[in-house]
Amino acid sequence: MYDPRVSARGERSALVSPDLHVGSFRFWFVGQSWEWSDEVARMHGYQPGEVVPTTELLLSHKHPDDRQHVQDALDHALLSRGSLSSRHRFIDTGGRVHTVIVLADRMLDDDGTVVGTEGYYVDLTDTFDQTRRQVLDVSLPELLESRASIERAKGALMLVYRIDANAAFELLLWRSQHTNTKLRALATQIVAELATVDFEPGDLRRSFDHLLLTAHERIDRDGEA
Hints:
Order of helices and strands: HEEHHHEEEHHHHH
Organism: Mycolicibacterium tusciae
Helix content: 40-55%
CATH class of the largest domain: Alpha Beta
CATH architecture of the largest domain: 2-Layer Sandwich
Catalytic activity: ATP + protein L-histidine = ADP + protein N-phospho-L-histidine
Number of domains: 2
Number of strands: 5
Largest sheet: 5 strands, antiparallel
EC number: 2.7.13.3
Mean pLDDT: 81
Radius of gyration: 17 Å
Distance between the termini: 22 Å
InterPro entries: ANTAR, CheY-like_superfamily, PAS, PAS-like_dom_sf, PAS_fold_3, Sensor_kinase/Photoreceptor, WH-like_DNA-bd_sf
CATH topology of the largest domain: Beta-Lactamase
Pfam family, one: ANTAR
């Protein structure tokens, strides 16, 4: 996923979808340095460029009941050289509690060496707002036509991420829009791969993150899985 020849700021601007409350991040294992997109900074209550993200700052915002869980996820990523994935709550500078899903994959250099993890914060605090309702209205004919595959894909997301049906649909819709992939094709691909992917024992969540973030790469451009 990582390409050192592309500037971090330039890539972030192409990876975010502010209407869906999504922001991107990068975490380098060596030196434990972070990058937040402007959207992630705003989620935490900061203006873009106001703070330099650090592990200490990140953990200071976590909900007290979830802080150890996030610390454990971070430790696991550092020790295993894997991805940093989590579902947790954090508190912004104004005292508001956010519920987020962190979807991430390993970050590789040109030689294929794992150098960190990168992915997205998906803020589920206000799911299915008017913007998404308008998108749903436009997409309704396709949804009705491909209801079975979408419902199965939603079910998988609900199980893995412990979210409701609206939030699961929002995640699918975001990935469809972000990757310029038909919603039906994406859902069909995810469902098909669930039966064939060799999920890592005891690491279903991270394996599923990788599937969700890369499924569009295995769909031909005619829109068929």
